[in-house]
Give the backbone structure.
Amino acid sequence: PAVAIAAEQTVKLSVPGMTCASCPYMVKQAISAVDGIKAVEATMEDRSATVTFEDTLTSVEAIQQATANIGYPSTLYEAKSGS
């Protein structure tokens, strides 16, 4: 029988609303609360968040919804696949 294999994906999101020192922390906390998130790195320098997640548990859309929910709309920068 075929077994679904969880694939880890890493995406970079542009989060232009991050304008203060605590913004990346808040974005990181919001993204970390989403199921399936493995790692989050948010930086104010280029106003981005790099997120590694299990694609069987969550989606880019769910991650973007999490940032939008706290007032930081985000858009996909680039997609990198693990394969």
